[in-house]
Specification:
By secondary structure, the protein is mainly alpha-helical. It is built from four helices and four strands; from the N terminus they run αβααβαββ. Helix content is 42%, strand content 9%.
């Protein structure tokens, strides 16, 4: 069986997340079979629609710069605690 392309693999990982689940960009890349491709995960999230982008955070737990308010609201609705622009992991 052929390895799925990057975007398909990343999309599958992200859509498998349940409300309240969090992953880092690096964790998504590794789970998708492309370790080290964290920045490319961000590209997929920026160019795709319908993905639960708010469930993905940086390795330090930081939220999406410039979109912290919406990111916080979406995470808090799912029971995730956010403090000072970071998730409490």
């Amino acid at each position: 069986m052929a390895k799925p392309d990057f975007e398909t693999a990343v999309t599958e990982v992200i859509t498998s997340l349940k409300p309240g689940d969090l992953m880092t960009y690096g964790e998504v890349a590794a789970e998708a079979g492309f370790p080290g491709a964290a920045r490319a995960v961000g590209r997929v999230l920026r160019t795709s629609t319908g993905l639960p982008w708010w469930r993905i955070v940086t390795s330090s737990g930081r939220l999406v710069p410039g979109n912290e308010r919406e990111h916080t609201e979406r995470l808090e609705r799912e029971g995730v605690i956010v403090r000072d622009g970071k998730v409490a992991r």
